[in-house]
Amino acid sequence: MYISTRGNYAKIRSAEAIRLGMVPEGGLFVPEAVPALDRAEINRMAGQSYQQIAQTILKIFLDDFTSEEIDDVVSKSYQINNFDHPDIAPLVQIDSRTFILELWHGPTGAFKDMALQIMPRLLSHAVQKTGAGQEIIIPVATSGDTGKAALEGFRDVPGVKIIVFFPFGGVSRVQELQMITAAGNNVHVVAVKGNFDDCQTAVKELFADSRLNQVLAEHNMAFSSANSINWGRLVPQIIYYFWAYAQMQKKGEILPGEKINVVVPTGNFGNILAGFYAHLMGLPVHKFICASNENKVLTDVIRTGIYDRRREFFKTNSPSMDILISSNFERFLFEVNGHDGDKITKWFHQLHQEGYFQVDDHTKEKWQSLFISDYATGKETLAQIKETFEKTGYLLDPHTAVGLNVYEKYYRKTGDNTKTVIDATANPYKFNHAVWEALAGSRHGQDKDEFLILDELHRMTGFPIHRALKDLNKRMILHDTIVEKEELKETVKRILAL
Ligand SMILES: N[C@@H](CCOP(=O)(O)O)C(=O)O
């Protein structure tokens, strides 16, 4: 069963949680209890395919779906037409202790595809199961990657309309083009004069607006979410942590039961939280290393227990992590403080009203031996891309470079030789200007055409061009709406003709 992090909603089954997206009154759905996998089952995964591991994990969490339904969605989602690598998420070794988990082989070149290729199928089943029969409206807030992955995943899905809001000027040109050229008879893309937090806050307000939800219901519509606030987005992300562990075991890099480190560059805390759920299920993890860019609200809260968003918002060269209000930290706090919904309600109310909260020492102690946090500046990010390429021939995107940079700092400080998996969250060619600046050592490329740079980078590095980016500059612009951040609700009403 699924419960609300704020204790303000009845227990529901997974299909209902996925259909609703988030708790309408505020709060996120989480499993009432996290099921444990026994050691033998985790060891068996070393001989299994990505699809088999996916089936195991999904069946545990989505037990109101039939086994046939899960098998069907898994085989349709994680297949070679959707992912350009037979491993789905290949694990690449770059030195004796460091392994890069490439999560960007899906259709849009970002880790979001790992969940957004399967989630639309889960949502369609969820809608049928809950008998709601309404048209599902999915407002999405994105800092660049979720938007395109959701547009791709939900394109032409019957009974669904998707409206993506991205910060105008706050995403890379490739990310922007991927979204504004998105085809499909049910997709809308809107640029917002604001940052990601403005988009995400406004989207959450739509869910909480009872009058608007009533009007929607009168038109036989209902909101759901494709962001990681939806449990249906998060649960598929648990799979790849077990997969990575299984690959390490299979390659003989670790012994059964040996602990690994997991490094996650993260802004909305969803990706690292999925790893934490894997750990709660029994995945042997020594340290989770949470890596931020200059918007280091997560680094600070993990270190000090004080969540404070009253700070300057930086536009960085790892824009997908330009986030100060990290939705999934709420789920994390709920797990570590023993499901105390009252505390969560108090803290998140204070965050909303006053811009900060401080957790008690007891709560902070619960994560301090397991979680490490640090951040990389823009300059360090570029230097990491260059250094890694020169040393290993491996090309990092800026977000993955943030992860590796933070990990290297941790390694220098501790000498911890534990084998380490770093989530590679995006294809480097989604961020050509930053990668060019890193490798060429100058900002000259900033004024150059994005796709000329892409070609030059390709020539320089030999790194293959992701299929999603090949003819992106030749596609027609289909979405050109730009709105003020205060106009988001009106925009939704206009699109839906309410
Ligand atoms: N980094 C994300 C922000 C939204 O995160 P999500 O995991 O909640 O969808 C993005 O690229 O849009």
Automatic annotation (TrEMBL):
<comment type="similarity">
    <text>Belongs to the threonine synthase family.</text>
</comment>
<comment type="pathway">
    <text>Amino-acid biosynthesis; L-threonine biosynthesis; L-threonine from L-aspartate: step 5/5.</text>
</comment>
<dbReference type="InterPro" id="IPR037158">
    <property type="entry name" value="Thr_synth_N_sf"/>
</dbReference>
<feature type="domain" description="Threonine synthase N-terminal">
    <location>
        <begin position="2"/>
        <end position="78"/>
    </location>
</feature>
<feature type="domain" description="Tryptophan synthase beta chain-like PALP">
    <location>
        <begin position="99"/>
        <end position="323"/>
    </location>
</feature>
<keyword id="KW-0028">Amino-acid biosynthesis</keyword>
<dbReference type="GO" id="GO:0030170">
    <property type="term" value="F:pyridoxal phosphate binding"/>
</dbReference>
<keyword id="KW-0791">Threonine biosynthesis</keyword>
<dbReference type="Pfam" id="PF24857">
    <property type="entry name" value="THR4_C"/>
</dbReference>
<dbReference type="InterPro" id="IPR000634">
    <property type="entry name" value="Ser/Thr_deHydtase_PyrdxlP-BS"/>
</dbReference>
<dbReference type="InterPro" id="IPR029144">
    <property type="entry name" value="Thr_synth_N"/>
</dbReference>
<comment type="function">
    <text>Catalyzes the gamma-elimination of phosphate from L-phosphohomoserine and the beta-addition of water to produce L-threonine.</text>
</comment>
<dbReference type="Pfam" id="PF00291">
    <property type="entry name" value="PALP"/>
</dbReference>
<keyword id="KW-0663">Pyridoxal phosphate</keyword>
<dbReference type="GO" id="GO:0004795">
    <property type="term" value="F:threonine synthase activity"/>
</dbReference>
<protein>
    <recommendedName>
        <fullName>Threonine synthase</fullName>
        <ecNumber>4.2.3.1</ecNumber>
    </recommendedName>
</protein>
<dbReference type="InterPro" id="IPR004450">
    <property type="entry name" value="Thr_synthase-like"/>
</dbReference>
<dbReference type="InterPro" id="IPR001926">
    <property type="entry name" value="TrpB-like_PALP"/>
</dbReference>
<dbReference type="Pfam" id="PF14821">
    <property type="entry name" value="Thr_synth_N"/>
</dbReference>
<dbReference type="GO" id="GO:0009088">
    <property type="term" value="P:threonine biosynthetic process"/>
</dbReference>
<feature type="modified residue" description="N6-(pyridoxal phosphate)lysine">
    <location>
        <position position="112"/>
    </location>
</feature>
<dbReference type="GO" id="GO:0005737">
    <property type="term" value="C:cytoplasm"/>
</dbReference>
<dbReference type="InterPro" id="IPR036052">
    <property type="entry name" value="TrpB-like_PALP_sf"/>
</dbReference>
